[in-house]
C-alpha cells in the first residue's frame, strides 16, 4: 500500500528531528536557535573596553576615515589594573592579555596600525605620542612597543546623542523663527549670544597674550586650554586647562627679539590709528540702529506698513471726497514749531517770496546804475 504525501512529510520531519537530537549536546539546555542568536563574548568584551573611561584613546585618520585608537602598552596596563573585565569572556577569561588581543584581531574587532610619519619633524626632539594619521600595519599581531590599535566596529550611541539628533532640526526651526519672537525673548537671546561670543574672544586673546609673553621672556611654549581649538577632542580634553609639556627645541634669542619688536610696533600702530570719541559714537549709533531694526521688527508692524503704502482705489463715477479733503489740507501748512496747531495759507508764503524777489531786483538795478555813473 502506497503512503500519501502527508505521511511522507511526517516521516521526513521525524527522521530529521532524530538526527538533530542525536547530534545535540545532552548537557546543553539552550536551544540551538538561542545559541546562534547569543552575542559573541569577545564582542561584548570589546564594547565594554571601548566604553571604559580608563582606557586612554584618541581619534585619528585611517585611510580617509576617522577612527578611535589606543596604544598597545595602554591596553596591557589597563587589563592589569582591571582584571575583573575578563569575567565577560566566561570560559576564555584565563587567557593572557596578548592572546586576548590576538583573538580580537582575528575577529576583526581590532586592526593594528602604524604611524604615517616615521621621521622626526624639524624642531622636535621625538615622534608624536599620538599621531593624527595612521596606516594599516602589515602584520596583524599584538605588540606593546610603539603599536597602535583601532576599533573597527561602530560604537553604540548613547541616549543623549539620539535625543540631540532630534533636537537639531527643532533648533534650526527656532533660529529661523527669531524675527517673530517677543521683544523680551529677542533681548535675552541677543545678550546671551553676545556674552558667549565675548567670552570666547576674550579667552583666545588672553591665551595668545600669555603664550607670547612667556615665549618672548622665557623662551617656553605655554598654551593654556591647549585643546580649545582642536578639531578632534573629547569634551573633557577640550576644556583641559593645564598645558602639555613642551617637547620642542628652545627658540633662538634672535627670533624672540624680532617678534618682540614686531609686537611693540603693532601695538604702537594700533594706538596711533585708534578711532576718536566721535568716530566711536558714530559707529555705536550705526550698530545700535541696526540692532534696533532687528529687535523692533514684528509681523504686525510689517503688515500695517504694507497696508499704509497701498493707495486707495477710487471709483471715477462717485464723488471724490478724499481728493477734496487732500486739496483742502494742502492749502494749509502746519508749522513744526507751533504746538497749538496755528496754520498759514500758502498764498501768504507766495506773496512773501514774490516780495523778496522784487527787493533783490531793485538792489541789483541800483548797483548797476552806480557802476555806470562811476
Automatic annotation (TrEMBL):
It is found in: Endoplasmic reticulum membrane. InterPro entries: Sec62. The keyword Transmembrane helix applies. It holds the Pfam family Sec62. It is a multi-pass membrane protein. Residues 324-335, 363-374 have a biased composition (Basic and acidic residues). Belongs to the SEC62 family. GO terms for cellular component: endoplasmic reticulum membrane. Keywords: Endoplasmic reticulum, Membrane, Protein transport, Translocation, Transmembrane, Transmembrane helix, Transport. PANTHER family: TRANSLOCATION PROTEIN SEC62. GO terms for biological process: post-translational protein targeting to membrane, translocation. This is Translocation protein SEC62. It comes from Nyssa sinensis. The chain crosses the membrane at residues 163-182, 188-218, 253-270. Residues 1-36, 315-374 are annotated as: Disordered.
Amino acid at each position: 500500500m502506497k503512503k500519501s504525501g502527508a505521511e511522507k512529510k511526517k516521516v521526513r520531519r521525524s527522521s530529521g528531528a532524530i538526527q538533530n537530537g542525536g547530534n545535540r549536546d545532552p548537557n546543553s539546555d539552550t536551544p540551538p536557535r538561542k545559541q546562534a542568536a547569543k552575542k559573541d563574548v569577545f564582542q561584548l568584551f570589546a564594547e565594554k573596553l571601548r566604553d571604559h573611561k580608563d582606557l586612554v584613546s584618541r581619534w585619528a585618520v585611517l585611510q580617509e576615515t576617522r577612527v578611535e585608537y589606543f596604544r598597545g602598552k595602554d591596553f596591557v596596563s589597563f587589563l592589569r589594573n582591571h582584571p575583573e573585565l575578563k569575567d565577560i569572556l566566561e570560559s576564555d577569561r584565563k587567557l593572557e592579555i596578548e592572546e586576548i588581543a590576538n583573538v580580537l584581531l582575528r575577529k576583526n574587532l581590532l586592526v593594528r596600525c602604524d604611524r604615517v610619519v616615521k621621521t622626526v619633524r624639524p624642531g622636535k626632539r621625538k615622534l608624536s605620542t599620538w599621531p593624527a594619521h595612521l596606516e594599516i600595519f602589515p602584520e596583524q599581531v599584538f605588540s606593546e612597543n610603539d603599536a597602535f590599535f583601532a576599533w573597527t566596529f561602530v560604537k553604540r550611541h548613547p541616549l543623549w546623542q539620539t535625543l540631540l539628533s532630534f533636537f537639531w532640526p527643532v533648533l534650526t526651526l527656532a533660529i529661523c523663527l527669531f524675527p517673530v519672537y517677543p521683544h523680551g525673548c529677542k533681548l535675552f537671546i541677543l545678550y546671551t549670544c553676545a556674552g558667549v561670543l565675548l567670552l570666547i574672544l576674550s579667552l583666545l586673546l588672553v591665551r595668545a597674550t600669555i603664550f607670547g609673553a612667556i615665549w618672548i621672556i622665557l623662551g617656553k611654549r605655554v598654551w593654556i586650554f591647549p585643546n580649545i581649538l582642536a578639531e578632534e577632542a573629547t569634551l573633557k580634553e577640550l576644556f583641559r586647562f593645564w598645558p602639555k609639556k613642551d617637547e620642542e627645541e628652545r627658540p633662538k634669542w634672535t627670533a624672540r627679539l624680532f617678534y618682540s619688536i614686531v609686537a611693540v610696533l603693532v601695538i604702537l600702530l594700533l594706538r596711533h590709528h585708534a578711532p576718536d570719541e566721535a568716530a566711536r559714537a558714530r559707529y555705536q549709533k550705526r550698530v545700535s540702529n541696526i540692532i534696533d531694526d532687528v529687535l523692533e521688527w514684528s509681523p504686525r508692524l510689517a503688515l500695517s506698513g504694507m497696508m499704509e503704502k497701498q493707495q486707495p482705489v477710487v471709483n471715477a463715477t462717485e464723488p471724490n471726497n478724499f481728493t477734496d479733503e487732500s486739496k483742502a489740507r494742502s492749502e494749509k501748512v502746519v508749522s513744526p514749531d507751533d504746538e497749538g496747531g496755528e496754520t498759514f495759507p500758502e498764498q501768504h508764503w507766495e506773496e512773501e517770496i514774490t516780495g523778496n524777489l522784487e527787493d533783490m531786483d531793485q538792489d541789483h538795478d541800483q548797483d548797476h546804475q552806480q557802476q555806470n555813473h562811476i
